[in-house]
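hey so i finaly got around to running the thing on General odorant-binding protein 1-like from Papilio xuthus. pasting the sequence first so u can double check i didnt mess up the copy paste, my clipboard has been acting weird all day
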Amino acid sequence: MASSGTRWRMLAVCVLCAALRPPPASASQQLMKQLTAGFMKAMDVCRKELNLGDHIMQDFMNFWREEYELVNRDLGCAISCIAAKLDLLTEDLKMHHDNAREFAIKHGADEDVAKQLVSIIHDCERSNEGESDDCRRVLEISKCFRTKIHQLNWAPSMEVLLEEIMTEV
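ok and heres what it spat out for the 3d tokens, dont ask me to read them lol
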């Protein structure tokens, strides 16, 4: 039988381990990770098609980091290409609402979350309608989307994303 001092130390170790363990990702963070992974699959094809440099991969890998400034117009072009490959855009390069909702559901969203994601993107599109350069407009929409996802605490952590990407490779 363990002494009360030993039991106290074991309890303290257990509490410390529980306190230091990173919190599990929320279902919404998991969803955003899966959606990002879905986009990553098309990224390489678009990078080659558009003849974009490796800097695009760096921008894409840092997309969810709030402190990372998204300023590269080429990232908007790449995201537009990816969205087109995934059949998420209409002919006038606006989000196809039904396809975007289905894409979100396919990657783990329930109906309400999928509708919320579509609504966020639609709001971001409306706030950037004045931008005539399609790539710059998509970049600004993407930045708006990232900000709103962070406000909801849905953004996936870099560690989780890197782990996902490494398992895909």
